[in-house]
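Structure in, sequence out. Go:
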């Protein structure tokens, strides 16, 4: 099993691996109530999470769940039950933690709108396990997984060909990346006496936490809208890169830009007398209760609607402005302005995402090995892009740099990957040749499947010797 707490939703799933890079997945998803994201105690949040696991077991593994309950009532054993009766759980927890074991991690700080001071410094696996045990569920938290590590693992399992996956990245509610690094370059480990890891592979997965890149604001773009968003956020001065890239914040950046324009008497946005045409034949009006005037009132999905709108007169955008944001009878010019601004916000996010990807590709030296021959590369280019993963048709398998991505932005925002690739080509150290060697593929359900894979390995590594297995 796997659970995923990575943003505004909590996901519970069970995964069956078929062993041929495919899997079957059963899942449920529930929104995290806003009040629990800023609860006074960690128990309020984690008891809610455990309850969702119970609901899932009853709905999808009813026989297993009720069988466990019956055994608890009739059997007494100090050693517990056989392993096959207990679900090993991979806990995808997409917040900064100091991980000191496969299923132990101390919360360093909250991000993505969460702010529960009581949980900081505590072992999040223990917090969840305590609430699971309170409900007497047949579940053991076997592994703590960051969603990017899970995405990396899931992509490694499902990726085509034999090339290993270098990077797992999330571009959704939040953003982060985890990649495979040479062990001798991970110098911090030398001073960490608590760290337990396998030296035999010569490699280690590094969780970059790139959402906090340049919190000191030395190089990141910083508009007045970025500044206002940060000042009014629950974590000012933190996650500055994420606040310019992730889906949680892009809608708010657009909202702040639109509000400033609406309040400027010199700007003709949503002002009827400045519209050349208005096919609704009525006066443009913004309701006083419009979500446009409320913090977080504009959802990032609206950027996708505006960017992908090819309807005559941008009718889809205008209908959304009316239905969701109380802006009635917006003109085609209004919609065009919104589309341009939304496009600029989304394009900047994609280009910054490319910077993060490029940093990993360059720092690991993966571009140092050149493609086999110029003729091979030309032949691949002539065949055109691959059907599923862009970049796969541009280099031989051994030259491919495989990257797994997940998240609503990269999956649903029109042209997001195209903007990323354009930016990659503009980086001199990568260029057109290097960009064509980078294969970017969606790692569907990465946080769930990846966490389950890690939980499976962790459970096999730690089997109680006292339990008789047949």
């Amino acid at each position: 099993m796997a659970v995923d707490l990575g943003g505004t939703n909590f996901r519970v799933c069970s995964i069956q691996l078929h062993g041929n890079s495919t899997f079957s997945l059963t899942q449920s998803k529930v929104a995290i109530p806003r009040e629990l994201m800023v609860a006074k105690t960690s128990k309020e949040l984690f008891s809610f999470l455990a309850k969702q696991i119970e609901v899932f077991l009853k709905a999808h593994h009813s026989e297993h769940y009720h069988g466990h309950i019956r055994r608890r009532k009739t059997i007494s054993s100090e050693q517990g039950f056989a392993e096959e009766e207990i679900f090993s759980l991979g806990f995808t927890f997409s917040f900064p933690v100091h991980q000191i074991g496969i299923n132990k991690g101390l919360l360093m700080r909250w991000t993505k709108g969460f702010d529960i001071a009581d949980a900081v410094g505590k072992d999040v696996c223990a917090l969840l396990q305590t609430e699971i045990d309170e409900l007497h569920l047949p579940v053991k938290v076997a592994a703590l997984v960051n969603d990017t590590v899970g995405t990396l693992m899931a992509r490694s399992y499902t990726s085509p060909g034999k090339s290993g996956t270098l990077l797992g990245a999330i571009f959704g509610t939040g953003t982060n990346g985890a990649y495979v690094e040479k062990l001798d370059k991970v110098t911090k480990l030398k001073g960490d006496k608590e760290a337990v890891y396998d030296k035999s592979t010569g490699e280690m997965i590094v969780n970059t936490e790139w959402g906090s890149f340049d919190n000191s604001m030395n190089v990141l773009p910083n508009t007045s809208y970025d500044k206002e968003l940060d000042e009014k956020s629950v974590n000012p001065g933190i996650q500055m890169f994420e606040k310019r890239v992730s889906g949680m914040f892009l809608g708010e950046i657009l909202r702040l830009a639109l509000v400033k324009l609406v309040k400027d008497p010199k700007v003709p946005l949503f002002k009827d007398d400045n519209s050349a045409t208005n096919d609704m034949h009525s006066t443009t009006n913004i309701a006083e209760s419009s979500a446009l005037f409320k913090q977080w009132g504009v959802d990032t999905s609206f950027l996708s609607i505006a960017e992908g709108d090819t309807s005559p007169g941008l009718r889809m955008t205008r209908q959304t402005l009316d239905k969701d944001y109380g802006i009635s009878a917006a003109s085609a010019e209004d919609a065009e302005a919104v589309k341009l601004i939304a496009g600029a916000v989304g394009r900047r996010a994609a280009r910054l995402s490319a910077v993060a990807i490029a940093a990993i590709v360059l720092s690991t030296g993966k571009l140092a090995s050149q493609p086999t021959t110029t003729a091979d590369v030309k032949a691949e280019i002539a065949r055109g892009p691959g059907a599923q993963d862009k970049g796969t048709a541009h280099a031989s398998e051994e030259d491919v740099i495989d990257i797994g991505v997940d998240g609503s932005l990269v999956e649903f925002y029109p042209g997001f990957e195209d903007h990323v690739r354009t930016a990659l080509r503009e980086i001199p150290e990568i260029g057109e040749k290097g960009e064509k060697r980078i294969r970017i593929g969606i790692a569907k359900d990465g946080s769930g499947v990846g966490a389950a894979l890690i939980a499976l390995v962790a459970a096999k590594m730690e089997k109680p010797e006292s339990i008789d297995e047949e």
